[in-house]
Amino acid sequence: MSSCLQQHPFSAPFGDTYPSVVIHIDGIFNNQAASKNGAIADFDGHGSSFDAQYLPHGSWVYDEITYELPWSWGLRADNVLADNQIVYLPELATVHELHFLYAGDGTYGASEAKLELTFVDHSTEIIRLSAKSWWTTITLNVGAIQTPYHFESHGSKKNWNVTHVFQWSTAVSSYTPLKSITLPPPRSSDRLHLFAVSFTPSAAEQTVGPALLVRRARFTTKWEDVDGVRAQVVEVTIANLAPATAFSSGSVTSPFEVYIVGSDTITVSPGYVNRLVASDQVRVDVLVYGTSSNGNVAVQINNSFGKILTVSDGWPVTPLRETWTPDTGVLSTHETPTWWNQAKYGIFIHWGPYSVPAWAPPTSYAEWYDWSLHNPPDSGNPTWDHHLETFGKDVVYDDFFANFTGSKFNASAWLDLFDEAGAKYFVLTTKHHDGFALFDTGNTSHRNSVNLGPKRNFLAELFTTAKKKKPQMHRGTYFSLPEWFNPDYAPYGQDSWPGGLAHNAFNSSEFEPYTGRVNISNYLEDLQLPQMLDLAELYDTEIMWCDISGPNKTLEFAARYYNHAAAKGLQVTMNDRCGAVPDFNTPEYATFGATQSRKWETSEGMDPNSYGLNSATKPSQYKNGTTIIQTLVDVVSKNGNYLLNVGPNAEGEIIEPMVKNLLDAGRWLKYSGDCVYETVSLQKCTHHFNIVLRYPRPYTV
């Protein structure tokens, strides 16, 4: 496509495309990632490798950026394992953006890698890359390059988790030309590998006026209701490649509007930009009708008086999807809806039978009480010792069901608190790994709060009240795909979720009961999938927040979920722990050192170490209002949402220290929430400051 802004007073120094220049790094390749025809590689230091047949080769374009990949994989070194190497730019250039194809070689989450930039004036700058692991089990990252599996044990077997190479772009100071990039020192684990590096140059300082290019124009699967008709959201990113040194002459200081024009496409709500300073980027949402067929459109920019300033043509149309089918290629196009992107802040609720003992040793999760009690079942285990001393050896976990009363649970009071705290959505733990559900699970299981314990459907009470009293607050459901000790899960058991009855923690010759279990034939078909579908189709959950992944029927679920939501006029989303086709990533108790290109949501408890209530935690240890706001702003500035957890007690009360601190944060948000809600965070920003844009009339700062 043509990304150049033509017929305008702005300069277009790079012709018809968003520029990228390859930085050749093959001269410092020191690691072989790919195996081919018996030539076995050792990518991660443990005998694992990519299958060469799934990796693209040669000159390869992704997100308008050209990279140079090996022309032949599996024969020799094909990537750089970071070890303090220095990567020199091929030419003297002031840089607008750096672009990387990379992978971490750990097996979970992301590790931060610091790269040092050295400029020709000898100044330096540190950029932080949150390096995602090439494959994971619990979460599902989505890379620019994906392979269906990778080799393990020096090629003798396959690991069928989807495996990735990731893309990342970052801003660079454009005050002076960049000379080199120094890679991080070596690590013993979670090492950083680079496959390719490119850069986008800034315009020459002598260029007259702003140097604007359309960075991308992307037709999304998102929509907005405009006068009863669904209008498709087109995300348009505009870059001003004028260097920061040309701030006065290279900045756009007058408002302009962004339109999509084409033979079948009508803009019903343009994007608005008030200003765009030199070396910055801005992204706006343009709402359009008429994208029922494929083709190409142009991005048109008008000034505030309606005069056409620029036109960028050749951008491909992807029609708004009307029907979802259980296919990875279809479902993977789904993305977080606009309301979720704008909400920024939600409340997580971990509440269940584990709220009765409400205890964990330091740095442990109290909601894992049942598992911790049994692992290991001896006096070296703090949870085992605590249980023996507090409850005695004759009490098993299922005995806590009777004490999980919820007698003081008040849905209206909870929702008022969340609202006053400034949250725009909430996610209730409907079933944790103990298999105890807070809703009616019908004939799939009687291990729930309707058949046992309080004999109440807490999910129904909370959702019904929310729909009536807080319709603006979006509703979500956490759901654990596996269950620790469910005998029916045993055929699918893995790691800390083995399935099978638990041996009594104090008498290993006896099995503990799995109260409420009913006879089913298959865990996935008869329990997991039906329960997930009930959350989607009976309760209209807007967020399906799965946990643990593992064996699943997620493709079948997602298709029904999205079609049901569309029929009811809902826009819904699903996280990366459902085992397939995620909309957003979900690190725990973690933030990133750099802006993420993919939407993400960090979750953590108000407790410093636990989601479920832990009576061992002192009131002073809970996150106070200042900490909550600081974390929220940091996460939002890096393209994330913040899901802050409360752990009610067994009676259903949210304890006073949590309430106070939530309300303290809420008071700040009442006055300053405009700096948080409905904002957009971009990777490109002047000298690494994150830009914040208001929707639908964004501004750059």
Describe the structure.
The chain contains eleven helices and 35 strands. The protein is an alpha+beta fold. The chain has three domains: 31-201, Jelly Rolls, CATH 2.60.120; 212-335, Immunoglobulin-like, CATH 2.60.40; 341-650, TIM Barrel (Alpha-Beta Barrel). Strand 9 (110-119) and strand 10 (124-132) form a beta hairpin. Helix 6 packs across helix 11 (656-672), helix 8 (523-537) runs parallel beside helix 9 and helix 10 (625-637) crosses helix 11 (656-672). It is globular, with a radius of gyration of 26 Å.
Secondary-structure topology with pairs:
Blueprint: E1 21-23, E2 34-35, E3 50-51, E4 58-62, E5 65-69, E6 80-81, E7 86-93, E8 95-104, E9 110-119, E10 124-132, E11 145-147, E12 150-152, E13 157-159, E14 163-171, E15 178-182, E16 192-201, E17 212-226, E18 229-240, H1 247-250, E19 256-261, E20 266-269, E21 271-273, E22 281-289, E23 296-303, E24 308-316, H2 328-331, H3 338-343, E25 345-349, H4 369-374, H5 382-390, H6 411-420, E26 425-431, H7 458-469, E27 474-480, E28 503-504, E29 507-511, H8 523-537, E30 543-547, H9 554-567, E31 573-574, E32 600-605, H10 625-637, E33 640-646, H11 656-672, E34 679-681, E35 692-694
Parallel strand pairs: 2-3, 25-26, 25-33, 26-27, 27-30, 30-31, 32-33
Antiparallel strand pairs: 1-16, 4-5, 6-16, 7-15, 8-14, 8-16, 9-10, 9-15, 11-14, 12-13, 17-18, 18-22, 19-21, 19-23, 20-22, 23-24, 28-29, 34-35
Helix pairs in contact: 6-11, 8-9, 10-11
